[in-house]
Amino acid sequence: MSKKIIVIGSGFGGLGAAIRLAARGYEVEIFEKRDKLGGRAYVYEIDGFKFDGGPTIITAPFMFDDLWETAGKRREDYFELVECDPYYRIFDHQKRPFDYNGNEEFILNEIRKWSPDDVEGYKKFIASTKPIFEKGFVELADKPFLKFTDMLKVAPDLIKMQSYKSVYQYASQFVKNDFLRRCFSFHPLLIGGNPFDSPSIYAMIHYLERRWGVHYAMGGTGAIVQAMAKLFGELGGKVRLNAEITEIVVEDSYTHKVKGVRLNDGTVHRADAVVSNADVAFTYRNLIPAKYRRKFTDRKIDSLKYSMSLFVIYFGTKKRY
């Protein structure tokens, strides 16, 4: 009999984890507190309009391809990704646009329109982001830093990459025009960071975009959620909607072994393991009883510095732009 695993939350992370586990033969069930799947990628439907509540672009499409390959399927058979061109159109305060895509000559021509003296500086900037990408994304992106010593091991590399500087400061070493500096350092905003204090390792996002492109899913990110849900179902996975979890149930204080989850109606659903794709701080603070988490105390969690929040207004229009 296969082990049962409960996944809390149905964002891309939760769905991805559930698919990988189901593909390995586990009995997997997703618990989602909202009325449909998606998490941060939730789709709002109002008066015939559909609004993506979270991510709108995909910058590392190979990750989805890899997920489908894990299940022995082809991602292209489930949803379509289209590369954007340009990737971004950024306006200054005088409404002058700056476009960039994955073509270097196109970008250099755009830079010449604004500041010809920054062409060579940009070449040096993009060249400098390659080793940052190789170290920060290829080598470290999937490494858990659970102990202080884990960070010490990579400290020399972080110093070499000038991670003590902000992304804006790093870009400013190469580009002198202030508007262009902002164009090449705004990426932390996409993950709730501030370009003026986020470490320079995030400069790798610009290189990542140049390498794999910026893509849009036809049908919006909701189409990706639907495709992942379909794949999960084909693997035998189960989904429980409108199921708010109030506690991750622990067996006893000695082994700290998880035995399932408790819903807001008081029912307990047993499992051999629980994967939480809910917010990390929320999971520790609200789902795991304090007596089972000596390290992540309420005081420590409350003192953490969090990323910026985002206020978004969605408009439904009578014409297409």
Layout: helices, strands, pairs:
Layout lengths: L3 E5 L3 H12 L3 E5 L11 E4 L2 E4 L9 H9 L10 E3 L4 E4 L5 E4 L3 H11 L4 H21 L8 H13 L6 H6 L5 H6 L20 H9 L2 E3 L3 H14 L3 E3 L4 E6 L7 E6 L4 E3 L2 E4 L3 H8 L10 H6 L18
Helix pairs in contact: 1-9, 4-8
Structural description of this entry:
- The chain has 321 residues and is of the alpha/beta class.
- The chain has 2 domains: 144 residues, FAD/NAD(P)-binding domain, CATH 3.50.50; 129 residues, no CATH class.
- It has 11 helices and 13 strands.
- The strands form 5 sheets. The chain has a 4-stranded parallel beta sheet with strand order 9-2-1-13, with helices on one face.
- Helix 1 links the parallel strand 1 and strand 2.
- Helix 1 packs parallel to helix 9 and helix 4 packs across helix 8.
- The chain is globular and about 65 Å long.
Q: List low-confidence stretches.
A: none
Radius of gyration: 22 Å
Please give the CATH architecture of the largest domain. 3-Layer(bba) Sandwich
Number of helices: 11
CATH superfamily name of the largest domain? FAD/NAD(P)-binding domain
Return the average pLDDT rounded to an integer: 90
Shape: globular
CATH class of the largest domain: Alpha Beta
Largest sheet: 4 strands, parallel
Distance between the termini: 54 Å
Q: SSE order in H/E notation?
A: EHEEEHEEEHHHHHHEHEEEEEHH
Q: Strands of the largest sheet, in order across it?
A: 9-2-1-13
Percent of residues in beta strands: 15-25%
> What is the CATH topology classification name of the largest domain?
FAD/NAD(P)-binding domain
Number of domains: 2
- Helical residues, percent: 25-40%
Helix/strand class: alpha/beta
User: How many strands in all?
Assistant: 13
